[in-house]
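tool=predict chain=A
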Amino acid sequence: MPQKVWVTGMGTVSSIGLNVEESFRSLCEGKTGIGPISYLDTRFKEEYPLGEVKLSNDELKERAKLSEPIVSRTVLLGTLAAREALSQAGISDVQEYRTGFISATSVGGMDISEKIYQGFLEQGKLEDLSLMGIHDCGSTTEMMADLLGIRHFISTISTACSSSANSIMLGVRLIKQGILERVVVGGTDALTRFTLNGFNSLKIVDKQQCQPFDANRRGLNLGEGAGYIVLESEALMEKSGKKPFCYLSGYSNTNDAFHQTASSPTGDGATRAMEKAMALAGLKADDIDYINVHGTGTANNDMSEGNALMRIFAEHVPTCSSTKAFTGHTLGAAGGIEAVFSILAIQNQVVYPNLFLETPIPEHNFSPITKLKEQKVEHVLSNSLGFGGNCSTLIFSK
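tool=predict ok
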């Protein structure tokens, strides 16, 4: 029998909560975190609602107990979530066993470099060129690893919106190969002007509250946050006697190679990712109890992902919903945040509503649920579909 890789801790920060408990409460109460822009410095303040974390950088610093004068918001969000995950896992000494840190991000320290660039435009010179080193995605991971005290293995994943899911997959593989005994995996992303302007240039940002999987959907709302889980080997679990939350039974990453930003209309990449993940888990289609769909609210994504679901599940698509109407699309952090939500669904035997859904997509033979539902949840499938056709599926099992 292949060894299982267990989830023993989780942490998250997003627009619906500053920790796991707050986030779950918002999910159960149907409370969205998307609203008017308060913290991002942008000329679009009056036009686009965002899923912002409801603290300033100074407040996040104080909460994270950091004294560094300049820290990327990406680091602040990630540090809070990763520390919560380690705390839940009961890990106080990260040097005791071979422990890794694999963090996903799409913007890295871009929030800092944007401020430096703005200063350059206004003053005609760079005050401190060394600060540009914060821009790189890897720099945020390395700073977080230092703050967490992790040394054995550090890596950064940046594959657009599938980044966090891919970081979780890499962590599982490293444990199964005996390279690590435990690993903190997930991702973090802060909102930046570049992100908002870039998605706006694609004409896929909604000026109202987004409506994933609705026939009249207009686009996505962007968000920010972080989500991390702690994975531990079977041998370490036997040694510690911990009670795990669940285990990661299946995972897969594929690519439909269709377009730079759009998914294939037939959902080829998502279909293969789900098929391969279920095969690895040894599960059949009717074993899946809940699907946390990628569900961005864009015309292309929701149609493509829905078509993929029908190819896999035919007339019997399981209970499903998108949680992005709660948090906004958190990009590189989405897979990590939604991994936490998936695990909470197993722990509490509930599935979450697809907020603001009014009119189902007529081409689909299913519709996501619109109210919180108590039901049996033993296997949760979570999709993360990124630009460039990078499609990832995770399956968490009780």
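The chain has two domains: 6-240, 248-397. The mean pLDDT is 95.
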